[in-house]
Amino acid sequence: MRRTLLAVAIAVAGLNTALAQEWVVEAHYPDNAALGRAAANFQHVIVDAKRQVLRVDTDEGGIRLLEDAGLGVSIDQAATAKLNAFYAKFEQAQSAGLAPDSIPGFQCFRTVEETYSTMDTMVANHPDIVAIDEIGPTWKKTQNAAQGYEMRALRITNLATAASDPDRPKMVVFTSIHAREYAPAELDTRFAEWLVNNYGTDAEATWLVDHNDFRLVLQANPDGRKVAEGQIYQRKNADTINAPCGGSQTASSQLGVDLNRNFPFHWDIVPNNGGSSGTKCSQTYRGPVKQSEPETQNLVQYVAGACNAAGECSGGVFADRRIGPMNPLTSAGDGGVAAPDDTTGFFIDIHSNAALVLWPWGDVSSAAPNQAAMRTLGRRLAWFNGYAPEQSDSLYPTDGTTDDTMYGLLGVPGFTIETDGADFFEDCASFDSTTAPANINALRYVARSLHATYKLPSGPDTISVTGGADLLVAGDPITINAQLDASRFNQSTQGEPVLGTIRNIASANAYIDTLPWDPAAQPMALGASDGSFNSPTEQVTGTLSGSGLAVGKHLIYVQGIDVAGNAGPPNATLIDVADAADIGTLDGHISDHATSAPLAANVVLSNVSETHAAASSVVDGSYSAHAHAGTFDVHVSALHHLSEDLHGVSLAGGSTLAHDFALYASCPIIHDDVESGNAGWITDTAPPTPWMIVNNVLGNTTHVWNTPNYGDNLNSSLTSAAHDLTGYSDLTLDFDDRCNTESGYDYGYVEYSANNGSTWSGIYSCNGQSSWQSHHIELPAAANGAAALKLRFRLT
Questions:
Q1: Is the dihedral of CA 79, 83, 89, 92 positive or negative?
Q2: What is this structure's pTM?
């Protein structure tokens, strides 16, 4: 082992003398007991349970700890080189005089100061829905008022109605409580920006802000984060009194207290220090006593309020809905009392980078009292980001953590998401393209469920709601279309053997200006677009009476119900009602140019002042698009057709202008239904290749490409012939897939090459997707006009 370490040190010493102290290592553990002993010395160990290997970046001291725990250690030289390349880039940026208010090489992640500035800007621009709660000083600030930070929570809700609605559901998010994890704080900030910037124009953001109360602690460890912006390995806070650590900082030896082992519920309760460390320089040092750190005190006081030894809390963001002592003699001795299933709200602490969705308990393997409901919610969240859903202790025990504390004391669902950025210092390209959008969608899902977080995830999700038009003449009927899906579970069994139950949808209702659970709500039944409710996924439609609706904006909510009677999270569309004298109308029919068949198309009217959308009927292609009097550009688009634009269309109030559109079909370059053999597709793995054409695959009786017997450590592609697309542009790809791989281990990718396969770019990825899905993807502009375009489907 030492000979291997020396070789790596020599290879990288030319980059930075400090680099020889850090490696990315893999360690094989013989059993879960050995894993627990080893993992207690580190934070966010990435565990591959299939190979019985843990992965961590550490120094020679950390390697000795792994070996002392009985694990065989090897070095991942490629990952170590990547780690060293980061340091090289960091030093180059520093020597170039990069401004201290940015993170060298990682400008997509805001610093503490930039995050606070963003919060201030939100308040200044949106004082009706944004406020800042000052929640207490950091450790450094308690030592010197001129140093450190005042910790802050960003509050987002309709402040004008908050006092009259004090019980509206709350959602609390902590991020980057471990300082070196850049991605979580930025993810939380972008979620806040999505809520705030879309309020009033996007229906989902509008109703979520109006009816819920978001409390987002974007930087939960500002002192440590400031250090981590220049010293990548800092995870803990900056406490040098409770946790001094002399000498050079390394991956396994650093000052400070691990805030996510310092929370009060079941603090230091796992036997033999298996859930945290009592060694001050350890990365999982829990502190001398529970809540020893001002950061922990601030966060607990803010969320839970004041709690006594019996675990009774008051004065915090969440109401106390669960009974149980704070520090029983054993980790199982908390009374076993479940929170009532009408509990509202949600707590989540976001970390990086183990690709997991976790729920309590973390300190004991027994199921939490609300385990079934949390499992359902966890599998729902994991559908959006593709991470493995499991109970927190499935990898190794942890105690004194945020999620166990909030659930254990308050009964609110307490979760942790570990993002998958490959590194704690995630590449900005992967964060922007994958991590941020996937996890913002997961947060949006749980936000739609806050009214009954233990109940609504059992029902079908309302994915989208659209109206025939977003601007209506007073008294006109309201056409509503929605997409419902009850199948969206991540069915990985990596650490959780119980699968989510997928049920058929039984019905759907629409509501005007009232949420489904409002006492005054009047449900209006919608029908299945195909005539029958008989599937876990349904398109629903209906026409509502607009009689009596006042001039102004209105929200139309849609909620689905499954065959077991479970109602799911609703969603909404926003419509605007105006007097007929103020509205100009463009109407007519939209059809296919060659066949004259009616088309379901989207019509958008826009100018510098406003934008309005309408949809044509799938039955006869008729449309009616409204706008206030003025001159507009018109954009018409339909699937598999070229879009059409009109400019300078003048609409007068109280009048109608008729115009029909006949859209040209797009040109099909490749069309393969897999019914005529391999059609030129090539598998690039030597026999036995996993790729084969079969029929009668679950959900598809016709022929499909399939990989029924793929093995470990595979990287195999199904590649098309080269196609000359000189002169073609605006390329799109449509395909159906059922990516039923082992979630968290095996992935499918769709990629294209514009240069005959010399280089490839990804456009889609999937894993753990047990149901068939249809995709319509616009290829990047780089593919336009390619003389030798190839596509490939890759399994790895």
A1: negative
A2: 0.85
